[in-house]
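ok so i was messing around last nite and threw this chain in just to see what happens. nothing serious, just curious
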Amino acid sequence: MTDGQPTLRVGLYPGTFDPITNGHLDIITRSARMMQRLVVGVAMNAGKGPLFPIEERVELVQAEMAEVSALTGTPIEVIPFSKLLIHFARDIGASVIVRGLRAVSDFDYEIQMAGLNYRLAPDVETIFLMASETHQFISSRFVKEIAALGGDISSFVPKLTLERTLHRTARRG
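result:
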């Protein structure tokens, strides 16, 4: 509380979402239940050589948010960004950064990032959510590889993302 007014707990779930997976949706849904407002930050991250341009990644994430927001009762915004994560968090008023973990290898990287972010902005906390057991093996990178090689990705991504991913990987192949 500041000046007798409760502070709005704003969470930020950042990622490249190239493409968004059911694992991402699981983390978004679970973190939205803990926040009063959630921002899904779609990182530009051209260095990763994305399959989808930033505008389409934002569109695909937005396509899923109305349902998640209705389910959780939490307002969810999808915003692209290309700056330092902590600067983006401050710009949107986030006090919490949410990160999903699938395996120990994720934790090693994420704990380093959380430490650096804390050093830069000690008032912004990082929380980690373990992926649900049904989603621990899903990654955007594997989804793209499987799709490019003609495998079935329908259980890993939402319907619109499935259609767009199959279309894009067919054009590249």
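not much to say yet. The domain at 10-136 is CATH 3.40.50.620 (Rossmann fold).
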